[in-house]
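Narrative of activities, Objective 1.

The group set out to show that a structural description can be obtained from nothing but a protein's sequence at a throughput compatible with the screening campaign. Below is one input-output pair from the validation batch, recorded exactly as produced.
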Amino acid sequence: MGAAYCPNVDASPIYDTFRCNPGLEDVDAWGDMFELGESSAVPWPLRLRCLNYSAIWTLRYWRDLVERCGGLRYAKIGCDHAEDRHYTGLSAGERELPMITAQNIRVLDLTGVHNARRFLPILSKTAMPELRELSFKLGQDALDNDGTEDEVEEAMRVVSERSPKLEVLKVETTVPVEIDSLSKFSCLETLHISNQGGETWPWVYWDEDIDALARGMPRLTHLSLPCLTEREPGTTMLALDSLATHCRRLQTLAIGIDATDSQAADDVVTPFSDMLKSMTFSPLRIPTSAAECFACNLSTRMPGVHKFRGRIMGLDERGRSFYWDDGLKIIENTIRGFRNGGVAELW
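Output recorded for this entry:
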């Protein structure tokens, strides 16, 4: 069933459809907002398997949905942004609610919920033993209240403990996500962290962070983790060495690298497996004089990669960063030379 939002029309027709069609398995009602009314009054179809629904969600609404629809496998929920930003957290009654179990949920998409204080309790209060994929945003509204970073870490701890089969985690954020909280997901195959605020990354990961992540997630096949700001160095070539050593199943990699230390590049000795096919530097910071040596190192350390992407940030004589278009050409030509005519594309 599909429904679109119409101004000045409540959700009564949708609920009438629920009542008349208890065998509905798929519901798509994504609009500006649908009022839910009293949580216990929503006649969710008992056989519901896939839900795409925007409303003013609370923990009680979520609890009633999960308890009524035991076969729910996919859920994408969202909130009206204007209403959402005024939400300050659980009521006293909601804090007393016991843990609930969503036995069959495989995919949970919370990217339509803008206020972290609305969806973090859902994560903290729900056991999802079969959950395979989780997506959420930590936007600017999450910064309006003190303690949100601690709540994020707590939610990640709970999810890692009660969703041991999680394979895909996608986070759009302006709030720091600590590696310690991520590395608990030992079964992850895809980890995608992106900056919701634009190109300027709000904090830095370091080599030791990537080493901890690589050791804790040996099953990773896809990793996207911007690590640099324009002013701080962040991860170096040593981070690549950690990933090559501990994540032998990697197929795609997107990571920021600071290659200003030529000695660090020489210390990278572990090649990636042939499974790695795509490499994106986001960005690569490198002195103009070191580009050719770096490309030589890259061509031997990533033998299976035939697709390179990235932005190059050069360093001038005073150590100031600038976007270096010629650096792409130099690295590309050098890699092609070492690949004996193979295709290598940096852009």
